[in-house]
Every structure is written in structure tokens, then in C-alpha cells.
Write a structure and sequence with these properties.
alpha+beta, Heat Shock Protein 90, five-stranded mixed β-sheet, two-stranded antiparallel ribbon, 7 strands, 16% strand
């Protein structure tokens, strides 16, 4: 009796692969934001505490029958400013966890970093890390899905922060740098002062399920590279030097020659 032939495995259609990538990207974004929750909660607590303090001051001034309208007006202006500050933090958070938008637009890399700066600095401060931005002026624009590229950058910064956990606080430094690249590219680098990546896994660093984290899933860098390659760019790792450190370099093509 002949054994029935095994039917050939059907390869997923390109649109199915794209949908899967988008779902994985969204899950990765949510996981990253979950890891940053403590820092964000701390950042939000500052304007909320200030709002409560200024509101109490207004109540106290009114209760004692104060006629110093300038003092009351100043307190109310501070409440407004702190409320706007809290709203801006929430807006940035919502932009990063929303369902991905597939639209790509002509944009400036430095603008993407400036939008992301508040959340990145919040997480860095929560872990006693100094984050420095070195943004080159007058960079050529790129064509990109803004939220997806921001997610890649945020993931690289978060990885760098985690790499510094065993480093003394006074030596915890991360540099987020933009520069004109070669071959009509814009270059973005995330450089840390940590121990660097183990040579044993460097060649597999961007493969799925490869991780240096005890509880890591090993998907962050793989998803990040997939996003960058979908933008016709590259994402690579290079050691900083003999003294340790890691550098992840993201290159994206100029708008006139790219996606």
C-alpha cells in the first residue's frame, strides 16, 4: 500500500508576513513600554504632585481671604503648565503603543528623536543613566513610518540601559547620535559604556530567540532589524573598543533615493 504523499507546505503570502511583522512589532512596543512603566510613572508623578500643591496653595489663599490676585494667578498658571506637561507625556506614550500605522512619510530623523527624547530620558534617569543626544544639523530627510522607527530607537536605548545595570552609576553613559552617512544614507547610532556583547553570540545577535537577558524573549533585535530592512536600511552592531561598550548603527536611505 502506497504511503500518501505529504502535501507541500504553503508559503505565507507577502501580505500575511507583513501582517505578522506588524503584530510582532506592536507586541514588542507594548513590552518595551511595560518595562519603562516605572520611569514613566515617576515622570508623571512630578507634574501631578505640582498640580496638587498649587491647587492647595490657591485654596489656602482664598480661605484666608487673600486679595493678592497676582499670587493666585501665578499658581493657576503653574497648574496649567504642569497639566500640559503631564498631557504631553501621555501623548507620547499613546503614540508609541497605538496600533501601527503603515503610512510612510518624508520626515527628519532629528525630529523623530526629539519626539522620543522625553520618554528615553525618563527611563534613563530612572536607572541612573546619563543619556546624551548628539544630533547633526541639516540632515537629509528620509521616508519612514515614524512610529516604527521610533520603536526601533527606543528598543536600542532600552537595551543599552539594561546593559549598564552592572556598571557603577558614575560610568553609566549612553550617546544617541545622528550623522550623515555614506552612500546617501542617514546614520543613527546608540552607543553605551557597558561591557559590550559577548563574542560568542555576535554572529547570531539579530536572530530570533537569541538574547543576553535572563528573562528576554530574544525578539527585540530581530524585529528591529526586520523593520529597518523593510525601510531599505540596515541595522548592525559593532564593539566600541578594547575598554568595552557597544554601538548599534541604524542607516536609512535619503528620501530621494529610498523607500
Amino acid at each position: 500500500m502506497d504511503t500518501p504523499a505529504t502535501p507541500p507546505t504553503k508559503s505565507p503570502a507577502p501580505e500575511e508576513l507583513l501582517a505578522l511583522l506588524q503584530r510582532l512589532t506592536h507586541v514588542s512596543r507594548l513590552a518595551t513600554m511595560g518595562e519603562m512603566a516605572a520611569g514613566i510613572a515617576h515622570e508623571l508623578n512630578q507634574p501631578l504632585t505640582a498640580i496638587a500643591s498649587y491647587a492647595q496653595a490657591c485654596d489656602w489663599l482664598l480661605a484666608r481671604g487673600s486679595t493678592d490676585t497676582a499670587e493666585i494667578r501665578d499658581a493657576l498658571q503653574q497648574i496649567t503648565a504642569q497639566g500640559l506637561r503631564a498631557g504631553e507625556i501621555i501623548r507620547r506614550l499613546r503614540n508609541l503603543v497605538r496600533t501601527p500605522d503603515t503610512a510612510r512619510v518624508v520626515t527628519d530623523v532629528n525630529e523623530l528623536i526629539e519626539e522620543l527624547k522625553g520618554l528615553a530620558l525618563t527611563d534613563a534617569r530612572a536607572h541612573n543613566v546619563r543619556l546624551t543626544l548628539e544630533l547633526a544639523p541639516a540632515l537629509e530627510p528620509i521616508v519612514a513610518n515614524r512610529v516604527e522607527i521610533q520603536q526601533v530607537v527606543l528598543n536600542l536605548v532600552r537595551n543599552a540601559i539594561e546593559a549598564l545595570e552592572g556598571v557603577p552609576p558614575e560610568r553609566r553613559d549612553i550617546v544617541l547620535r545622528t550623522a550623515p552617512g555614506s552612500d546617501s544614507n542617514v546614520e543613527l547610532s546608540v552607543i553605551d559604556s557597558g561591557p559590550g556583547v559577548d563574542e560568542a553570540i555576535v554572529d547570531r545577535l539579530f536572530s530570533p530567540f537569541v538574547t543576553t537577558k535572563p528573562a528576554g524573549a530574544g525578539l527585540g533585535l530581530a524585529i528591529s532589524r526586520s523593520i529597518v530592512e523593510a525601510h531599505k536600511g540596515t541595522l548592525r552592531y559593532r564593539p566600541v573598543g578594547a575598554g568595552g561598550g557597544a554601538c548599534f548603527v541604524l542607516r536609512l536611505p535619503h528620501a530621494q533615493g529610498g523607500a
